[in-house]
Amino acid sequence: MANNVLRLKNITMQFGGVLAVDNFSIEVNQNEIVAIIGPNGAGKTTAFNCITGIYPPTNGQVFFEDKLIVSSQPSKKMKSIYAGSNKDFPEEKVCLTPDQITKLGMARTFQNIRLFKTQTVFENVLIATHLHQKCNVFSAVFRLNSLQEKAARKHATEMLEVVGLLDVKDELATSLPYGQQRRLEIARALATKPKLLLLDEPAAGMNPQETAELAQFIKQVKERFNLTVLLIEHHMDLVMSISDRIYVIDFGRLISHGTPQQVQDDPKVIAAYLGEDEE
């Protein structure tokens, strides 16, 4: 039986009267590359935000390595306007914060690059290594954590070498070309030592050659760090070439799931992307 790393159970996210994600359930197994695809506005990034603790979902649960990390149900005014198709509400309420979820071993990148603009390439990655450091005011003042800091700098350097950015480590992060900024975001995520890496449109803004190179890079990183990968992507060539399984979402609802070939041949997926002929 496959080892479950991530499981979403009936996730629903409603903003006022807008149902962004409705009863969305997926499973991601260890060492898989799984993609979530769908038209613009389908609810993909909203689902990512629910997984990583940025948005507490209106309803549903998220499990990471069988640990319940998110569990929510409609409350207050939302009870009266709730429009989700799933009416079974979990009794337990759990809402870990993004940093707590990252400490468990889940890291992500963002659709819109979110680097520390005034920091260097090296500093952007170094900041991420502090997640697992144990120190306090006393140890900082008297430099008692110097060994931890030395190890963190070494780890940050190694991550930059992995993504091919070591030669620009002293440059401002925002001075890098767009493709290199994407790699820097991945390096920063890797610096947190994740088990599950979430990539939100990593190929956005890339040309075909850069996209092909990124596909190889993702596979290499997965193998080198023994990662499980969940990604959102619009570049179908990349998705089809590296994904073990694909979930397709449209208007916030799951419409298809399977291997790349199964999804590619599904009439519901074709209709979602291309529309249906009027009779």
The order of strands across the largest sheet is 7-8-9-3-10-11
CATH class of the largest domain: Alpha Beta
Rg, Å, rounded: 20 Å
Gross morphology is globular
In the CATH scheme, what's the topology name of the largest domain? Rossmann fold
> Helical region count?
11
| CATH architecture classification of the largest domain | 3-Layer(aba) Sandwich
Task: Please state the structural category.
Answer: alpha/beta
The counted number of beta strands is 11
What is the mean pLDDT? 91
Q: Name the helicity range.
A: 25-40%
CATH evolutionary superfamily of the largest domain: P-loop containing nucleotide triphosphate hydrolases
Secondary-structure element series: EEEHEEHEHEHHHHEHEHEEHH
What distance separates the N and C termini?
46 Å
Compute the number of structural domains.
2
Biggest sheet architecture: 6 strands, mixed
Quaternary organisation of the protein chains: single chain
Unreliable stretches: none
Strand content: 15-25%
